[in-house]
From TrEMBL:
GO terms for molecular function: methyltransferase activity. It comes from the Bacteria. This is Methyltransferase. Gene3D superfamilies: Vaccinia Virus protein VP39. Keywords: Methyltransferase, Transferase. Pfam families: Methyltransf_25. The keyword Acetylation does not apply. Residues 46-126 form the Methyltransferase domain. The lineage of its organism: Bacteria, Pseudomonadati, Pseudomonadota, Alphaproteobacteria, Hyphomicrobiales. InterPro entries: Methyltransf_25 (IPR041698), SAM-dependent_MTases_sf (IPR029063). One of its GO terms (biological process) is methylation. The keyword Transferase applies.
Amino acid sequence: MTDAAARIIDLYSRHAVAWTRARGTALRERAWIERFADILRPGATVLDIGCGSGEPIARFLASGGHPITGVDGSPEMVALFRTNLPSEAAETVDMRSLKMNRRYGGLVAWDSFFHLTDHEQRMMFPIFCDHAEPEAPLLFTSGPAFGEAIGTLEGEPLYHASLDPNEYDLLLNENGFDVVAHVAEDADCGGRTVWLARQRPL
């Protein structure tokens, strides 16, 4: 499965338009995105990690007065993001080497972080910490239990992985985040396993 993991960025790059069309603009995650937004300070800048085309999550947050910086490893996705949200910032960056040299009022890694291997996911938590302002919320999706899974994108293998929930708890705590909410296989959100955490105050 590691071969499929290594091809994630290439896969999304080649199928960026098809994925964006299939994803659509319906905010099926509205309850979680609104809960995240409720924690944000007014006008807080949000770092959208694995931003894709910016539809619909980045657009929703931007419409609420939150400047967005989108980052994605796929140049094609970043181009779509810039077309959809020309007033927001976007950069082509692999999240595994993310170093923006600033902190943000909120971090989102929705349906992106879970494409990393278990080792790569562990390495992301210090990166989250380095980019989060005090009290900044962090929202991400994972699997419900430790393991790997293969889906499909345009008929090609699409890699996913997850740590054990207890390890996510530990990594969040070690990197200064407190869990606000966690639901495994949320039936109201397409069966996604969702984590909402918040960076501790200074």
